[in-house]
Amino acid sequence: MMVEKPLFDEQIAPHYEAWYETPEGRRADALEKALLRRLLGSFPYAQNALEVGCGTGHFTRWLSEQGLRTIGLDLSAAMLVQAQALNGVLLVRGDAPRLPFADGAFDLVAFITTLEFLERPQEALAEALRVARQGLLLGVLNRWSLLSLQRRLVGLLRPTVYDAARFYGVGELKRSLRSVAGGKAPIVWYTTLFPRGWPWSQWILPWGGFIGMALLVLEG
After folding, report:
1. Contact between 96 and 180 (Cβ < 8 Å)
2. In whole angstroms, what is the distance from residue 126 CA to residue 130 CA?
3. Alpha carbon distance 184, 115 (integer Å)
């Protein structure tokens, strides 16, 4: 994830990846990746990808494992140091609203738990569409979920990384994409991270803690 403020700096970056080794982190990681893998099926001809706001490169490496030649971009030097130490992907330092790439440089551009932390999300989406030939892949924290409520309650008791986040609902996220891509752009979405015991791991319901959304670029 990437922000335009020094939020993910030397204090957070060295410990960020460790969250995925906790029971909560392992569950979230498995469910989120399963949903994102399903959405990747919307781009059967994609061969390469850019992850904007790659942080420690956690999902950049995963996208590479799915067979995509992937570059990770982040504004935080501290995060990129951690990503470099974990190896496996090409990394670039850059700003989401001013991507240092030519038009149509990638088949796919991904924002995975990144859009929530950007000061200029609409500009970032427009830039991503500029460099994406086939479309966008988004993984976003859902405002209208029990998990979001829990995070906000924790934030009342102590500072958390989510204090600076702007969570989205499914409808708001779709409107943001359509505002930069046009009203006819096809959008596919699901949510996951429902409470434990929920009968489905992912579904077209707007209440899961994690929204996965794909926007397809129409040719011509």
Report:
1. no
2. 6
3. 22
Q: How far, in Å, are 54, 92, 193, 200, 201 from residue 197 at the CA level?
A: 31, 40, 11, 9, 9
pTM of the model: 0.92
Domains of the chain: which residue ranges? Answer: 13-216
| pLDDT per position as a tens digit, 177-206 | 999 998 888 999 999 999 999 999 999 999
CATH superfamily of the 13-216 domain: Vaccinia Virus protein VP39 (3.40.50.150)
A 10 A CB-CB count for 93 gives 13
Task: Centre a 10 Å sphere on the Cβ of residue 137 and count the other Cβ atoms it contains.
Answer: 27
Contact 116, 144 (CB under 8 A): no
Residues 6+ apart with CB under 8 A from 142: 148, 167, 168, 169, 170, 191, 193, 206, 207, 208, 209, 210, 211
* Strand (E) or helix (H) holding 214: strand 210-216
pLDDT digits (tens, 9 = 90+) for 95-123: 999 999 999 999 999 999 999 999 999 99
3-state secondary structure 85-98: HHCCCEEEECECCE
